[in-house]
């Protein structure tokens, strides 16, 4: 059995894209606390920017104190759900107090790291992928109308890509008083690479193109930049954000 100690490194890039007047995406991470987050806000005017910023700030604040818990691995799903519940309430309450922010919300995709285990979290259609041995795998499931129809066999993948309803998401933080979080627990192997991204990336680039960029040996920040630039070249219709998280090792 491997005794490798894993060390995580990360890089991130966000971009307004070529069509949107502002950037409603937000991201944040703490390698020290093993927290990585990407949020894609919605709500018009300043609402989307406010919602995504609240989500990142609140989740970082709430989850950074988790190291105080005993048996952290068994507690992680509950801690994540508690943090999502509180963050959802913070966004929803803010929108109720300010009519200019009414209806605002945000997607969230996150990665929580504890040694050789990670938990991928998502609400909405921002995604987490894992690259292992140069093969890309989507970990999270989109909470979108067309993706749910595809999973039910009521729509083909090609139909989903053409559908005028492809922007409709079925879950978001802050739009309702309650929200349901998906959590996926994974074992990490040395060399694993995780991608967190908003749909501004995945609407423009298919998984094969993303895989080809991630399979290169360039630095993490260079690969982030290449992904964003490729999405802009393909149209850049939305804000684009990605975080790459790499698991390296030292053998002992």
CATH fold label:
Phosphatase 2c, domain 1
* Rg from alpha-carbon coordinates: 18 Å
Helix content: 25-40%
Low-confidence stretches: none
Strand content: 25-35%
CATH class: Alpha Beta
The CATH homology group name: PPM-type phosphatase domain
Account of the protein in words:
- With about 250 residues, the protein is of the alpha+beta class.
- The protein has a single domain (about 5-250), classed as Phosphatase 2c, domain 1, CATH 3.60.40.
- Helix content is about 35%, strand content about 30%.
- It is built from seven helices and eleven strands.
- The protein has helices spanning about 45-65, 70-95, 145-150, 155-160, 200, 205-215, 220-235; strands spanning about 5-15, 25-30, 35-40, 105, 110-115, 115-125, 125-130, 135-140, 180-185, 195, 240-250.
- The longest helix is centred in the middle third of the chain and has 26 residues, at about 70-95.
């Amino acid at each position: 059995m491997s005794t490798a100690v894993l060390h995580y490194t990360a890089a991130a890039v966000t971009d307004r894209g070529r069509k949107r007047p502002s950037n409603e995406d937000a991201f944040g991470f703490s390698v020290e606390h093993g927290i990585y987050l990407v949020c894609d806000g919605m709500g018009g005017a300043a609402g989307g920017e406010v919602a995504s910023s609240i989500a990142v700030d609140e989740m970082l604040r709430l989850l950074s104190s988790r190291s105080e818990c005993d048996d952290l691995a068994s507690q992680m799903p509950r801690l994540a759900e508690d943090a999502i519940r509180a963050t959802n309430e913070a966004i929803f309450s803010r929108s109720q107090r300010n009519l200019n922010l009414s209806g605002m919300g945000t997607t969230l995709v996150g990665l929580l790291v504890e040694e050789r285990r990670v938990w991928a979290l998502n609400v909405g259609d921002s995604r987490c992928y894992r690259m292992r041995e140069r093969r890309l795998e989507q970990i999270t499931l989109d909470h979108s109308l067309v993706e749910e129809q595809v999973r039910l066999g009521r729509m083909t993948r090609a139909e989903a890509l053409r559908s005028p309803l492809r922007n409709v998401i079925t879950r978001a933080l802050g739009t309702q008083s309650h929200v349901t979080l998906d959590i996926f627990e994974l074992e990490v192997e040395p060399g694993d690479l995780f991608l967190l991204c908003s749909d501004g990336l995945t609407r423009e680039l298919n998984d094969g193109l993303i895989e080809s960029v991630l399979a290169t040996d360039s630095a993490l920040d260079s690969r982030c930049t290449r992904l964003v630039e490729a999405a802009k070249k393909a149209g850049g219709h939305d804000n684009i954000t990605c975080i790459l998280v790499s698991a390296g090792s030292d053998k002992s």
